[in-house]
Write a structure and sequence with these properties.
Blueprint (H helix, E strand, L loop, with lengths): L4 H11 L4 E5 L6 H6 L6 E5 L4 H5 L3 H6 L5 E5 L7 H11 L4 E6 L17 E5 L8 H4 L3 H7 L3 H4 L6 H20 L4 H14 L6 H8 L3 H13 L3 E4 L15 E4 L2 H8 L8 H17 L6 E4 L5 E9 L2 E7 L9 H9 L5 E4 L7 E5 L2 E6 L1 H6 L5
């Protein structure tokens, strides 16, 4: 069992504030393995996929009173009839107990969670394998970009289409259909695969509906389901109300580089492919290390664009650019951005920026580094 100390620390920190941690993430991202690695001798693990579990927890107070361990894990808890009641009683009646519940989506995605446990829980989104976790999995960055960051795919010797196709079918049957009641797997997968191929670009509902021959409301409902289940991320534009900035149109990113390269038929990867996948990888790193602030992008009507922007307040807006090769960065768009928003730090993330260094590009001072140095920056966040 591979230990993932970053995520274990996140869970332990959350438990200092609240009794319930909700661990969400896409199927096969490692939620079960991570849950079982939590101080195993003092942990009571419950697989909610098993039919017998419903009877075991029918009387929550009786169930909790008979626990000998201080930590209980409810894996795939949304499979139960009334999971919110089970969690609420555990948090309120047994204050010394620590609870970890896992699922693919947010609590609010299911009608079973009418009580979203406000004030009793923290949500942790488990992303695919991160930059600083690659040594733990014995994987190179190139393999991570090609295979993706789901542990079974990353540790496989060869990339096989069967894994990705089976995952898509299972994702629909076990998550999408159960949570949202969608019936047409072919239409759903057609949209999902279209978004995988468009991943990293701007998302237009009408254009997508026209391209696929499906209705606009269907596209909107399906994309919302994909967003709730962490399969896609909508990165919305940052703006200050200026007339020359984009203010509405989001960019859409799929959850994993392996699925992006699979859907695009990138086998093997060519040199031009790495930049696109690197941008996706950086986004996952930002999501993991910076969960409390929205990640946005910036673009003006002249086409100048900054990959990612994080606003930490009115007087600090950090800009993050992604380049596989840092020498290809010209700084034109970032300089335009800074002429409007002068306060904040500039980062250029590249896998080759070891050690990190400070560069001057045009009129700007930029920290050139890897995701690891960005995440460990003392003033970050």
């Amino acid at each position: 069992m591979i230990q993932r100390p970053f995520w274990l620390q996140r869970i332990e920190q959350a438990w200092r504030d609240v009794p319930i941690v909700w661990l969400c993430g896409v199927r096969r991202s490692g939620k079960t393995t991570l849950a079982k690695s939590l101080s195993a001798p003092q942990l009571h693990y419950v697989n909610c996929d098993l039919p017998a579990v419903e009877d075991r927890v029918r009387d929550p107070e009786l169930f909790y009173r008979n626990l000998a361990e201080p930590v209980v894990v409810f894996d795939e808890i949304h499979q139960l009839h009334d999971p919110a009641r089970l969690l609420k009683i555990g948090a309120d009646a047994f204050p010394n107990l620590r609870i970890l519940a896992t699922g693919s989506s947010t609590l609010a995605a299911s009608k079973k969670f009418r009580d979203t446990l406000t004030g009793r829980k923290r949500v942790i989104h488990l992303t695919p394998v991160l930059w600083d976790e690659l040594p733990l999995f014995g994987a190179t960055l190139q393999k991570r970009l090609f295979h993706g960051g789901l542990p079974p795919a990353l540790m496989a010797e060869q990339k096989t289409a069967a894994f990705y196709r089976e995952w898509l079918d299972s994702f629909f049957a076990r998550d999408i259909q159960r949570l949202f009641g969608f019936r047409d797997i072919n239409r759903f997968n057609m949209l999902f695969e279209y978004l995988l191929r468009q991943s990293g670009g701007q998302f237009e509902v009408t254009k997508t509906a026209t391209a696929l021959g499906i209705s606009r409301p269907t596209v909107e409902s399906h994309v919302r389901a994909l967003e709730i289940t962490n399969a896609v991320t909508l990165v919305r534009p940052y703006h200050g109300g200026g007339q020359h900035e984009l203010v509405k149109q989001p960019k859409i990113y799929a959850f994993d580089t392996g699925f992006v390269s699979f859907a695009r038929g990138w086998d093997p990867l060519r040199s031009d492919d790495f930049g696109v996948l690197w941008e996706h990888f950086v986004l996952e790193q930002l999501q993991a290390h910076n969960p409390d602030y929205p990640i946005q992008y910036w673009r003006d009507k002249s086409g100048n664009e900054v990959d990612f922007v994080i606003a930490f307040g009115r007087d600090r807006v950090d800009a993050i650019e992604c380049k596989w090769n840092p020498s290809a960065f010209d700084g034109v768009a970032l300089e335009r951005f800074r002429s409007i928003y002068p306060h904040g730090r500039n980062f250029l993330l590249s896998p080759s920026a070891v050690p990190a260094y400070t560069a001057r590009v045009r009129s700007l001072e930029i920290q050139v580094c890897t995701p690891n140095e960005l995440s460990s920056t003392s003033s970050w966040g």
